[in-house]
Amino acid sequence: MQKTVFTTPVVNHLFRAVARLFLRVSGWRVVGELPADTPKYVLIGAPHTSNWDFPLMLVAVLHKQLDVRWMGKDALFRGPMGPVMRWLGGIAIDRSQANGLVGQMVDVYRQSESMIVTIPPEGTRKKVERWKTGFYWIAHEAGVPIVLGFADFGKKEVGFGPVFHTSGDIDRDMPLIQAFYKDKQGRHPELF
Please, is 4 exposed, middle or buried when counting C-beta atoms within 10 Å of its C-beta (0-12, 13-18, 19+)? Predict the structure, then answer.
């Protein structure tokens, strides 16, 4: 895979230093451990209630020195911005393909020796009745676990919770995943 901002020499050290400075000045803490022996997983992040959620998770990712990817519409990757989007960790998704988003991401996981893709399960900052399930099916069909990431504004903690292995029974698994987030407070709790 191509180098990303997270693996580019000098740049990654600079961004990591900025992340550590932010943590020191803001009073936020990065908590939790990541699976050291698991090179591929889906990293979900919730609650997703504000524009601050992404930068906070980015700080945690930089602090832990992870090479994280994200998914975007293939239109974002056309023209001169394409290489920039890939350098920022983007993976182009063609929504017109027959195998859809899940199939494309499963293919990417299978072709990679290591891969961490971050996905907000709510899919939006607005209040939703139920989470999207793409993250679950990507993890299940690729045979990779899900790491439960979070930003808790009540405790000023951003970090990583348990590793969850899917069973294929989403009706059983989804409540177990969501239960982890019951005591996590988004910036706008009313939206979670």
Answer: middle
Which CA distances in Å does 65 have to 5, 50, 61, 92?
11, 24, 6, 23
Phi, psi of 15 (to 5 degrees): -65, -35
**Strands of 146-152's sheet in order across:** 29-31, 157-164, 146-152, 40-46, 115-119, 68-73, 90-93
Percent of the chain whose pLDDT exceeds 70: 89
Q: Tell me, what amino acid is at 56?
A: L
Model pLDDT, residue 140: 98
> For residue 3, is it within any domain?
no
> Quick check: pTM over 0.90?
no
What one-letter code names the amino acid at 90? G
Assigned domain for 1 exists: no
Q: Does the pLDDT of residue 61 top 80, yes or no?
A: yes
Let me know if residue 69 belongs to a domain: yes
Residue 66 included in any domain: yes
Distance from the first to the final alpha carbon of the chain: 35
Task: Determine contact, residues 4/90, Cβ cutoff 8 Å.
Answer: no
